Amino acid sequence: NATSMTCSKTPCGSRHERSVTNDFHPLSHLCESQPNRFLCANCRTLVHCVMGQALVRQCTEDFYCTDKLGLGGAVCYPNEPAECMCLRPNEFRVDPYDPQRFFSCETAGSQPESYKCPDGKKFDENSAQCVNQIGFPECVKSGTFANTQNCGEYYSCIPLRHGWLQKFLMCSGNHLFNERTKTCEDPCTLKFVCQQEGRFPDPLNM
C-alpha cells in the first residue's frame, strides 16, 4: 500500500483502471482511431494511447519528448530533440509537435519557458507572435491592415465588447493592398512621390 507504506493483501487495480484518462481529457483526441502507442503531444508531454484514450506523462527537467524507434515510439529523453531546446539566446521557437505552443529562450542552453496561443491561433516564428491558423496576425487595434506575409491579402479589425471581429479579404488579380489608401492597387502603376528628404526602399522592389 503506497499510502500506508505497508504490505497489503488487497490486489492493486489494473493499469487501465488507475491511469487511463476519460474521454473528455483535452488530449484524448490524439488517440482517437489510433492503435495502442506512445506519441508526443508537445515538447514536454508524452501520451500513451490505450484503447483510444490518453495516458499523459509530463517530462522532467532536461528531458523532452522525442520519437525513438528503438524504444517503441515516443519517450521522455535527455537533451533531445534539438527542436525543443534553447540553442540561441533571446529566441522564440514554435513547438515542433503542436503549432499552438511555443517557448522562449533567455540564453543558449537555458530551460525553455513554454506558452500557448489562444484557441484557433498558431505561433509564427517569423513575426514572433500568435497568428490565425490561416496566417493572419491577431487584432490589437481597429483598422484595416495588409497581411505582411502576403500583401495580396488583408484583414479588418472591429472592436467588440469582448475581443475583436476579424474579417479576412483578398485582392483580385495581381493587386496588392495599400494600407495608406486602404485599397487594392496594381503595384506596376504606383508612382512614388517624395514627401521628405532621405533614402527609401524601392516600393516596386522590396
From TrEMBL:
Transmembrane domains' residue ranges: none
Domain Chitin-binding type-2 spans what residues? Answer: 81-141
Q: Which PROSITE patterns match?
A: CHIT_BIND_II (PS50940)
From the UniProt record, which GO molecular function terms apply?
chitin binding
Q: Which GO terms describe its cellular component?
A: extracellular region
Q: Which domain of life is it from?
A: Eukaryota
> Which Pfam families has this protein been placed in?
CBM_14
This one is known as: Thrombospondin II
